[in-house]
Amino acid sequence: MSESLWIRLSQMGDAGALMEIDSLTWDEHSTPAERLVWSSREQYLQKCPPGSQLVAGIGEEVCGYLGFDHPTPLESNRHVYELNIAIHPAYQRLGVGRKLMEAVKQLAAERGVRKLSLRVLASNPGAVSFYRSCGFEEQGRLVEEFYLGGLYVDDILMWCPVEHS
Predict the structure, then answer these.
(1) Which of 73, 77, 110, 116 minimizes the number of CB atoms within 10 Å of its CB?
(2) Tens digits of per-residue pLDDT, 45-82?
């Protein structure tokens, strides 16, 4: 990576690149949903409006994102962000995901969020290991929650506290 990595909140113009990352990243090993293909840019922007993701890039290239949102509309749940992350295959294992995790922790602290949570399939041990290395711990497990590729797969619930200065 000769050029430096940048991270910012998502913008309207990022939709195409982020939709492409989704189509390249999500498959039966990383999500229980059918392969993620958005039907339109409008559908994508409805589900992922500008400002709801941190976008990482190098030079002019968008290379990954980390989405965050409150898991429910309840006021009593506003201290939690639920996360999802995807890195373009060409930029995986270069530290992009770790930088996005650091950035979301800082953003969450600035916004008064106390807890980050996410879900990961037990059939994706690389992702589980990555999340552990970023400070996440298992907080629960939905045993045999999904039937994927002829196997029953656990859904692991993970969390990380947000440190406030």
Answers:
(1) 73
(2) 888 899 999 999 999 999 999 999 999 999 999 999 99
Low-confidence ranges of the chain (pLDDT < 50): 1-2
DSSP characters over 104-161: HHHHHHHTT--EEEEEEETT-HHHHHHHHHTT-EEEEEEEEEEEETTEEEEEEEEEEE
Q: Residue 76 carries which DSSP code?
A: G
Q: Residue 33: how many CB atoms within 10 A of its CB?
A: 10
Per domain, the residue ranges of the chain are: 5-116
Tokens 């797969």, located at residue: 153
Q: For the structural domain made of 5-116, what CATH number should be given? A: 3.40.630.30
Please enumerate in sequence order all residues whose Cβ is within 8 A of that of 159, keeping only pairs 6 or more positions apart, or say none: 115, 116, 117, 118, 136, 137, 139
